[in-house]
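S1.2 Input.
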Amino acid sequence: MNRNQKISEEQLAKEADRLVNDLVLNHAIQEARTEHLERMSTIDPADFAEMVRTQAVVTALDDVMFTLQRYILADDNYKDPLM
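S1.3 Output.
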């Protein structure tokens, strides 16, 4: 798929649902998130740049998952397979 190709809301929702439920992806994101949260407790409080970088990683990881959830919720035709 090239960058100019449009993806339908239904395609986004289906792929987002697959990714949200992918055990390996969720494990990797949670592990990276936990690692960076723990790192924040060891950063020198005077090292503002490192604190901001570490917080940015946590925020980015959270944003990926929130964006996937948003794609799922945005598709009016999408049916939750668990329902």
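S1.4 Remarks. The mean pLDDT is 90.
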